[in-house]
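Onboarding guide, step 5: your first structure request.
Type a short instruction followed by the sequence, for example:

Predict the 3D structure of this protein.
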Amino acid sequence: MRKREIDPGRTGPGEGSDPRFITALARGLSVLRAFRRGDPPLGNQELAARTGLAKATVSRLTYTLSRLGYLSYSTDTGKYTLSVSALGLGFAALGSMGIRDVARPHMQALANETGVSVALGARDGTSMVYLEHCRGDSPLHIGIEVGSHINLAGTAMGRAYLAALDEKERTALILELKKKESWKRSKKGVNEALADHGRHGFVLSIGEWRPEVNAVGVPLVLGSGPLTFALNCGGPAVLLPRDKLIDQVGPRLMDVARQIQLEMGIG
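The system replies with C-alpha cells like these:
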C-alpha cells in the first residue's frame, strides 16, 4: 500500500478536491509543525515519520525550507532545526493575540493566590500549545513554558477544550484522538471530565498527565474555531488536592474565564 502523503490531522478539508488548495504548501507547513519545543535536531527520516510524508518528499521540502531560511541544516549531522526566521513567525503570531494581554493579569492574580501555575492554551492538531503561562510563588513548578505542547486527551487544558466544542466538532476530534496510542489510557478520564464540566463548569486531571500533578481546566470561548481556547491551573498534588480543585480553584478559574470574556467584549 502506498504510504499516506499527509497527516489528515494537519491539513484542510480541500486537499484533492479544491483547486484553490495548494498541497505543496500544506506539506511544507506540516514539516515546520513537526518540530517541538526541546527537540534535538531532526533528520528527514524522523520528519517523514512525524508527518506521514514520504521521505523523498520530505527531503525536497527540507532542502527548500533551508534555502528559504526557515530551517537550519547541519552538515555534521545531516539534520535540521528551526531557524530564527521560523521562530520569528511564531512570536509574531503570539504578539498579535490581544487575548494574552487581557488574560495575563487575571491569570497572574490566580497564580499568586494558589502559588501554582495558570496557563492559557489553544489546540494544535491533537495537542494543546501554551500561549501564556503565569507562575505563583511555590518553589515547585511543572516546567512548561510558552510554546510547549501537551497531550490533549490526558490534560485538564485539553479536556476543557473538548468540553467547549459542539457535539459534531467534539466527535470529529475524538476520532482523531482515537488514532493515538494514548487514547485507551485517556478515554475514561475524558468521559469523566465531560461529565464534570456538565456538573461543575470545569474539568479535572488527577494524576493522569503526570502522577504527581493535579489540574483543573475551563473552556475560554471567544468565538468559533480558532477563537476557542482553554485555561488550566495545575501543580503538585500536595498543593492541589482534588477537594481543593473542586471547592476553590475550579470556581476561581471560571471567574477568570468570565473576566477575560467580558474584557474581550463577549457575554
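Each response can be followed by summary notes, for example: The beta strands are 71-74, 79-82, 117-124, 127-134, 149-151, 203-206, 213-221, 228-236.
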